[in-house]
Amino acid sequence: xxxxxxxxxxxxxxGHMAIEAVIDNGVVKEAKSAGTLFRGFEIIxxxxxxxxxxxxxxxxxxxxxxxxxxxxxLCLDAAFGxxxxxxxxxxxxRCLILGSNxxxxxxxxxxxxxxxxxxxxxxxxxxxxLFVPRxxxxxxxxxxxxxxxxxxxxxxxxxxxxxxxxxxIFGGKMPHNVAIVPGGVTEKPTEDKITNFLWRLNEIxxxxxxxxxxxxxxxAKAYSDYFxxxxxxxxxxxxxxxxxxxxxxxxxxxxxxNLKPEPFAKENITEDVxxxxxxxxxxxxxxAEGETKPDVKKKQAYSFLKSPRYKGQVCELGPLARMxxxxxxxxxxxxxxxxxxxxxxxxxxxxxxSVLGRHAARALEAKLVADAMxxxxxxxxxxxxxxxxxxxPERGEGAGLAEAxxxxxxxxxxIKNKKIERYQxxxxxxxxxxxxxxxxxxxxxxxxxxxTKVKDxxxxxxxxxxxxxxxxxxxxxxxxxxxxxxxxxxxxxV
Amino acid sequence: MDTKKYPVVWLQGAGCTGCxxxxxxxxxxxxxxxxxxxxxxxxxxxxxxxATIMAGQGEPVIEVLKDTEKDRKGSYILVVEGAIPTAEGxxxxxxxxxxxxxxxxxxxxxxxxxxxxxxxxVGTCATFGGIPAAKPNPTGCKGVRxxxxxxxxxxxxxxxxxxxxxxxxxxxxxxxxxxxxxxxxDLDDLARPKLFYGKLVHENCPRRxxxxxxxxxxxxxxxxxxxxxxxKGHYTYADCPLRQWxxxxxxxxxxxxxxxxxxxxxxxxxxxxxxxxxxxKELTWSQK
Lengths: 494, 288
Fold this sequence. Notes:
The complex is a heterodimer. Chain A is α+β, with helices and mostly antiparallel strands. Chain A is 39% helix and 17% strand. Chain A contains 14 helices and 17 strands. Chain A has helices spanning 41-45, 50-56, 65-80, 88-114, 121-125, 143-171, 191-222, 319-328, 332-345, 355-379, 428-432, 444-449, 461-469, 474-477; strands at residues 2-7, 17-24, 27-35, 37-38, 180-181, 184-185, 236-238, 241-244, 247-250, 253-255, 261-262, 269-272, 307-310, 395-404, 407-416, 419-426, 479-480. Chain A is globular and about 65 Å long. Residues 478-494 of chain A have low confidence and may be disordered. Chain B has helices spanning 18-24, 31-36, 59-71, 105-114, 123-128, 144-150, 167-180, 194-197, 201-204, 208-213, 240-243; strands at 4-12, 38-40, 43-50, 77-81, 84-85, 94-98, 101-104, 118-122, 141-142, 157-160. The longest helix of chain B has 14 residues, at 167-180. The termini of chain B are far apart. Chains A and B meet through strand 4, helix 1, helix 2, helix 4 and helix 5 of A and helix 1, helix 2, strand 3, helix 3 and strand 6 of B.
């Protein structure tokens, strides 16, 4: 029998999202992921002072604003001719600000967005409205383990807050830091700030090592079938990120199942719009020439998300993509961490391509970033500059590619008469949650859902666990809703 | 004595979730206290709906909203985060779906707003429209007060602007309501509590002495008053310099960055370009 499951809203993600799955004999045959909010940031940015893009694009997302600040600053550095001039202190502080938010975002994601799919909070705290209604029937952790996980849910609220407090030492405030600007950062690395930062970081590292990673392992042991669920497209893309004076923490690559890294070039990114509410004239364009012309009357469209593709292919972005990219390019520390974790849960490398693999990669990445931050901090030089002065050029072009907690993010700008002529943003969730492309290939989340066995259609845990493992950020992806309200017409429902 | 519980529905419109994240950053009380404890003796919040943190999803949580509308008339606090898209009948933003039909943000803010005890608009998007309503306002975004006025909804509105709002502007406002009742809130003509938005940033700025002496920063990273670099603190009403942000760690001007006026009704069009000096007399909005 063919039926349809619709989950709208998908909660415990950033933003507004809906999921549809067509089920045939208990298996998902077709899936659609859709965001349900459109703001039109790229349209709002046109004609503004280019420097303001750095402040405004952060407001695309309150969970990962620093990633937009970073991508936007890199983009403006390029357009202003500053790329080679940003002082080492500026690069390091940008990375410390971004890194702090990686930690808060990853901890928030595991404990406060994803964990309630695995942990029975109501039995430990009580039937608060916050914890019920919910899906019922598949909370597996034993009473003691469950109680401990719920305690850590509460403790993690403090730790993620402290990540933001640490960030603010250099960033000024969070959400929406103020220090990252074209040319560097506005705050100075005095010794007192460095030490203040270091001891906050130490507490967070202790939490990651002794609570976060062990908790991910505890959940993995109780739900080990989720190493085989939500496999997805198995093609990973990382732009690379954390631009340090000595190089990058995350290496860029495109990696498929043969685990051979292919070099990444941004010119190979295109955005299809066949199934998106945009004029077809914009289909298949590189974001440097991209356009955002809504066409809400388009027949086959079901999404305001465009479909970013690399050489025409669907890719998954995020912590798993970055860990895979660094792993296959011989990063010794990543290899050591991944192998250690796989040994503890007794699965092979292939098991990473799964719901639990994504959670594990995120936790290991938190450790990798936090450990590296301690080194960046002690590389700061208190007496040296953090910023180089700049002027807005008459004309210019630039691209800024970075890594956000959820995956690679890119900003593209064209400046004319000292104003923004074109600004395009491609977010990681745009890749992951994209609709079908011009060749009708489903997006990464859609592919991860298709083929999944759903045990209980009233409580489709499998679907929400798969979706949330990608850590979707819909406000980031900016753009979609069926403005005619007729998505239901898309499927034949029996 | 029984605990008095205040049901709370937190809706998210056209926004970035930054105000929710900011409230998660509350320090004393912490977010755990807001969610689980008597915030003040004998009084407690009961959060019924918040899409970022609640356990449930799909139609059952939409039922929670419908039940609140029906069964808790006049007793619940509606919190709105994000602007309200009004173009195309509100279809640029929906919060979920019931019986195969989108429930728009526009519709849910009206339905829940009409019978709320009180509505709190958090952040500049919900109060004044904010960035989604910036030119050319592609989705017809508006703030809560404007939508209420256009639809004859008389529920009192408290505006807590900021991009994002400071967590203590929220917890402090809730404290007044729980201790003394909503009527005790002393609001200005933009419905902002004077407790938090009563003074200009400029009045309490630690770089005010530099301004008075004529010591101005010429480029970012310099010491001195940031007025020449576009600081909007001389017409922005907020207590940031006294309260500071993130547990008192820092704030915009302390980090060497000009105030961008993010709490003001003109944000961002009226406070742009952000890094260009704006002269006071060029301002247009009401509290000037």
